[in-house]
Amino acid sequence: MTVVRTDSAVSRSLTPVHRPPPLPSRGLLIEWDPATFRQTLEQFAGDRSLPVPHAEVKTGSPFPFSLRVLDADVPPPIMLHPHWEQALTGFIREQARGVPLNAGNRHYKDRNPKCEVAVALTPLRVLAGERSIEELEAIASVLELPWLRSYLRFRHETAIHSVLRMSPDETKSALRETAEAVERCRSVEGPAAEAVATVRRLQQLFPHDRGILLAICMKLIQLNPGEATVIPPGCLHTYLSGQAVVVMGISDNALHAALTTEQVDLTELLQLISTGQPQPSALPVLELGDGEQRIPLWSDDLDLRRVVVGKDPKPVIVGPFSVVLAAMDPASITVEEVTAEMLPETKILYAGAPVTATFTGPSQVFVASAL
Fold first, then answer.
1. Residue 328: how many CB atoms within 10 A of its CB?
2. Structural domain boundaries of the chain?
3. Is the confidence at residue 57, as pLDDT, over 60?
4. Are 1-64+299-371 and 66-283 equal in CATH topology?
């Protein structure tokens, strides 16, 4: 998507042009592509400067995060993003061994940790971290799960450690015991009810996967639209159902544990969680009023807002460097006299002096800004 000059103070991306126009007085609207946005801005900015944040040294991106819409119609793999010490150590180790960055057995493709924030668009169920001993004991007792009872009897390691150490025959036996327990289950409450619902959900898609056993041991987080949770580096997680906007640090480091056909390095996983996992937590969302919320991230230099746009146009301040994401439904952004249409999951960059943009929907729109 490229930029054309308009008579207003803002240019928007519409059709290809071969000669870059002068920079308008206010700013530019272009399609957001982290790989090419700088070249696009240089092409159409001319000799004028734009308030583009300095790129992160390690990532080359002006934003130390990415954002996307996640649809858990099929749950993604249970995975773990290493924290910064693990990422740095693993990267150096694999570099020293000469493992190519694009190799299938390469776990650490960079030195960066990856924090993850999920903001629910629909009712959202997230599995992350590990349940308390009390919850696991309740599940084992109510559902009569011999494999879980036996692991809880010996406190030398967590239940998740024990599941990851299972032999193929032990995994097969535990899955059979779990299927039988869920089949005979009629009416339960509390953690046992959550476990039953989780197993039934995953059995439909991954009937023979150890992920079913891991999911029983993982904490279930249920979010309503607009609520958020943070998943720290070093925490096993997946999304069980629902849709969310997921904000993540810039890193390609991810170790899969289950619900996947890709390589699973159990030895490396066990090493990463040998001292335990940090736990997910609810993220307080600041209500700004009139359908606008601010979601805190991991830097004071970053601003993330969720804007619920109804039938009436809604004014929202953007700039000096903002990426705007239309979530589930089409939306449009108007700056002065120029309107850019956004299909679901489309991202538009505004770079220029802070202005009051107008959004139209109905839609949920997310505005990520570097301050």
1. 17
2. 1-64+299-371, 66-283
3. no
4. yes
Task: Specify the CATH architecture of the domain 1-64+299-371.
Answer: Sandwich (2.60)
**Architecture of domain 66-283 in this structure:** Sandwich (2.60)
In percent, the amount of the chain with pLDDT more than 70 equals 85
Which positions ≥6 away from 206 have C-beta within 8 Å? 212, 258, 259
Task: Report the distance separating Cα 29 and Cα 350, nearest Å.
Answer: 5
Question: Which residues, including other chains, have CB under 8 Å from residue 14's CB and lie 6 or more apart?
Answer: 1, 2, 3, 4
- Distance between CA atoms of residues 1 and 95, nearest Å: 37
Q: CB within 8 A of 210, min separation 6: which ones?
A: 163, 164, 166, 171, 175, 258
What residue has token string 């991202």? 347
Helices 146-153, 133-143: crossing angle, 10 deg rounding: 140
pLDDT higher than 60, residue 288: yes
Contact 46, 23 (CB under 8 A): yes
Q: Confirm whether pTM is higher than 0.70.
A: yes
Main-chain phi, psi angles of 42, to 5 degrees: -65, -35
Whole-angstrom CA distances from 236 to 126, 244, 289, 297 are 11, 18, 34, 20
